[in-house]
């Protein structure tokens, strides 16, 4: 009977570890998606800055500033 009790406890712990592992994997996946979105935004901002500079001849973000 003690072995059955110990087995059940092990299965409960196993299930808990599996749930925690799924949460960690989901967090890693979410972080990867966020990094991808950040990369796309950075590339878009760079492209817009290049386009702006080619059209105006003034580096993006420098218009209207006094140096």
Secondary-structure blueprint of this entry?
Blueprint: H1 2-56
In summary, what is this structure?
Helix content is 82%, strand content 0%. It has 67 residues and is mainly α.
Keywords, please?
1 helix; rod-shaped; mainly alpha
What can you see in these coordinates?
It contains 1 helix and no strands. It is an all-alpha fold and 67 residues long. The chain has one domain.
Question: Which quaternary structure do these chains form?
Answer: single chain
User: Shape from CA axes?
Assistant: rod-shaped
Q: What is the string of helix and strand elements? A: H
Number of helices: 1
- Measure the end-to-end span: 83 Å
Taking all residues together, what is the mean pLDDT?
89
Structural class: mainly alpha
Question: How many strand units?
Answer: 0
Q: Any idea how many domains? A: 1
DSSP helix fraction: over 70%
